[in-house]
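Example (one chain per record):
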Amino acid sequence: MINMKDGIMNNHFYSFDLGPVHFISYSTEFYYFVEYGWTQIAVQYDWLKNDLAEATKPENRAKRPWIIVMGHRPMYCSSDHIGGCTMKDNIVRKGIPILKSFGLEDLFYSYGVDLEIFGHEHNYERLFPIYDYKVFNGSVDNPYKNPDAPIHLITGSAGNHELITPFKNIQPQWSAFRIPDYGYTRMHVVNSTHIDIEQISDKDGTVVDKFTIQKDTHGPYSESERIKMLLENTVY
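Predicted structure:
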């Protein structure tokens, strides 16, 4: 059920529970359309922090171990353009320039978010588990088995009538797989430990990518408690 505890209808951010998953949808546009003010960023950030704190209470995470967040503009990408997700200090990831406030990467990392799904780029790109441009694979054989950072997935071509966004020639080491193709993503939450994800091509319905996320336990990543302490002691 959509979280409407704040009593605000038609919100740009909300959460809901479905099976073993706590889903969170938020607006990345607040960070780019600041002609409407900076307050919207702070309000959403506080809401996200409170929602994640509630979702990660032991009794709640035991019921819904997976935490999946969804936003429009990615924090990372290897698309062939300048701006947004290609910027080292991406505003959604790092927060308001100079102040470095309200960045979402540290927040999601500190609460042990499992998967982050994005659109905007008209292509498909799967990242290795990543935090602050560093790869934290679970193992050599399977990077998505008990990773030590969230997994980012960009799937922005479904229903797109514009041109496909090309990629840079050199693929970064944190980019696991990418394809300039029209298609859509299919996710199957198998149980509390496994999620299967497939990318389907619109051309002929074939599966062009598939992988499984395995998390034997869900919770904070190795360094996330330190990050959380810093966030809690930050005054905005």
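Caption: Helices lie at 39-55, 58-63, 91-94, 104-110, 224-232.
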